[in-house]
Amino acid sequence: MNRPSRLKWQYPVIAVVATGAVGFGLMHASAATVGAKKPGATALIKKNPPPALFSDADVAALAKQRQAQKSTADALFTQWKKAHGSRRNDRAFAAWAEKQVPAPPAKAARTAELHQVQKLAKTRTAAGKKAATWLELHGKKDIWQLYLHDQRELIPQSQGAAEKARLKTALKLAKTITDQLAARDKQPAPYVLDPSLRPDKHLKAGQKGPYSYPSRHAAKAGAAVTLLSAWAPHRAEDYQAMAAQIVYSRLYMAGHVNSDITAGTLVGDLVGDYLLNAAGN
Fold first, then answer.
1. 156 φ, ψ to 5°?
2. What kind and span of H or E run contains 230?
3. Omega before 156 cis (within 30°)?
4. Mean pLDDT (whole number) for 240-269
5. Which of 8, 60, 98, 113 has the highest count of CB atoms within 10 angstroms of its CB?
6. How many angstroms separate the CA atoms of 216 and 252, rounded?
7. Which among 254, 134, 138, 139 is positioned nearest to 200, based on CA atoms?
8. What mean pLDDT comes out for the span 196-211?
9. Is residue 221 pLDDT above 60, yes or no?
10. 280's torsion region: left (phi>0), alpha (psi -120 to 50) or beta?
11. Is the backbone of residue 10 left (phi > 0), alpha (psi -120 to 50) or beta?
12. Is 203 exposed, middle or buried (0-12, 13-18, 19+ CB in 10 A)?
């Protein structure tokens, strides 16, 4: 395990979590006073700090896979940019992006991927389950919002507000596209195909979903990494490392197979490219 490297990229999250208890108490009290207002990412992660996550070796293969997928997305996005320039049209872009995602693998290939997930499940440990559970809970948006909060401390308020709005749009657009593709392709999650992988899910007899192609976690991670890396290039390695942690956790706990991750990453990278290129907010 490359412990120094892992501590380096975990630091932005841990630094915020470790902020004085008095500050958290004030924030928590303020949120309670508002009543209907939901706690933000900072408060949520302070309340539930990250455990020790997976080693660099565990996530290395997925990290390389994610980086390779980015070049595919960039090449595809040039087609959209050539036809539309920097014009903003989220609905048209979503329809176009859906067409760029390949159909799920054939049944035999997906079955082979399921066997890989089943094999990985046999290696689970208590610490691994704890890490995967935390990443599943906070990996869709909280981690990325917290990273952006860390960036915004060092830039003009107006710029920070614009970036916050754009990240929010990116996460929402990634969700919209992956949900539409999942409804179209109807690929059951690994634990639906093999309920023994997640007995805690309490599936009903004959249940077909949830559907897992493409991965929503991977799509949101791809979009967030693309935006955050453009805004703070010196932190790009940290963001990539965290994204690899998140998508690995989805295989570890049988939420997805590898092709789900690949397709989701493609969606996210396309969304990130689109919102970096698009004019206006």
1. -55, 145
2. helix 216-231
3. no
4. 97
5. 113
6. 16
7. 254
8. 90
9. yes
10. left
11. alpha
12. middle
Strand-pairing partners, residue 211, are 188
The amino acid occupying position 104 is: P
- Asked if 43 and 25 count as a contact pair (C-beta separation under 8 A), the reply is no
Terminal CA-to-CA distance of the chain, rounded, Å?
A: 42
Gyration radius from the chain CA atoms = 19
pTM: 0.87
| Mean pLDDT of the 36-57 span | 88
According to the model, what pLDDT value does residue 33 have? Answer: 45
Q: Tell me: pLDDT of 119 over 60.
A: yes
pLDDT at 168: 95
219 within 8 A of 100, measured Cβ to Cβ: no
* Contact present, 248 and 58 (Cβ < 8 Å): yes
What is the CA angle 199-204-209, rounded to 5?
Answer: 90
Confidence of residue 280 (pLDDT cuts 50, 70, 90): low
Structure tokens at 31: 């949120």
Residue among 219, 236, 220 at smallest CA distance from 8: 236
Looking at residue 247, its amino acid is V
Average pLDDT over residues 11-20: 44
Which two tokens mark 90? 């989220």
- Non-local CB neighbours of 139 within 8 Å, separated by 6+ positions: 217, 220, 221, 245, 246, 249
Name the amino acid, one letter, at 106: A
Q: What is the pLDDT of residue 207?
A: 87
